[in-house]
Amino acid sequence: MKLSFVVPAYNEEKLIDFCLAAIRESIAANRKFNLSKEIIVVDNNSTDRTADIARKAGATVVFEPVNQISRARNAGAAAATGDWLVFSDADSELNPGLLTDVLALIGTKDHVGCGSVFTMSDVPKWSRPFLNIWARISVSFNLAAGSFLMCNAPAFRLLGGFSEELYVAEEVEFSQRLKKLGSRNKLRFTVLKDHPLQTSNRKFVLYSRWELLRHIVNLSLRPKKGIRDKKYLDVWYDGRR
Asked: What is the mean pLDDT of each run of 10 residues along the chain (241 residues)?
């Protein structure tokens, strides 16, 4: 069994080293699984040292010129040679327990993929209810709503990967299609919750409460158009790091 870790990265020179170190440490902690692996970082048209840092850390670097998370993930998957694809964002840190749960789930042979809940440190109090609600929705409806998704590589290719019509929520939409494909083949999709993925709190640090509120209101007023148009998604795409 071979896992391909795919890390989309846009101007992540501050965090990419921590992300890759966490993946390596998680793999080392799970030696008993005799895991074959590769780590692919997708440089999504970065203007900083992201690609150089990733190469020095031993990752394979793939370049995707169009700055879009779906395209970056798909570019990494196209270069992957593993039986299973593990997508983890560059501002997140995998932990050994989560990888153990993923490998155990693969071993059951009754899953097509999984997601994971996530956690953030040092977030403002006002944001915690929203994060908790988001986690409950993800678990209750089995939707990969966050920075992590794992799936069977043939299933990923059969579905055509992440929708390149979407600039956000692409993991939610993909997990819905993946669940339908799995159910037709008596395979499950699960959101893991015992070992949450640690992800960056930077949206709450670099943006004010009012900027985030304005963003939420704008998306609420035009949800279908908003997730398909980059101009409404500055929190994801303005490059503030």
From this structure: 97 98 98 94 97 98 97 98 98 98 97 96 87 89 92 98 97 97 97 96 91 86 90 88 90
pLDDT of residue 9: 98
Local structure of 176: helix, strand or coil: helix
CA 222 distance to own-chain centroid: 24
The answer to whether residues 112 and 153 touch, using CB atoms and an 8 Å cutoff, is no
Residue with tokens 């503030």: 240
Dihedral of CA atoms 92, 40, 181, 97 in degrees, nearest 10, equals -40
CB 230 within 8 A of CB 145: no
Sheet holding 36-43, edge to edge: 60-63, 36-43, 2-9, 84-88, 148-152, 111-119, 188-199, 92-93
Domain positions in the chain: 2-200
Name the fold adopted by 2-200. Answer: Spore Coat Polysaccharide Biosynthesis Protein SpsA; Chain A (3.90.550)
The predicted model scores a pTM of 0.96
What pLDDT is attached to residue 240?
A: 87
| Distances in whole angstroms, Cα of residue 177 to Cα of each of 21, 137, 166, 231 | 31, 17, 14, 26
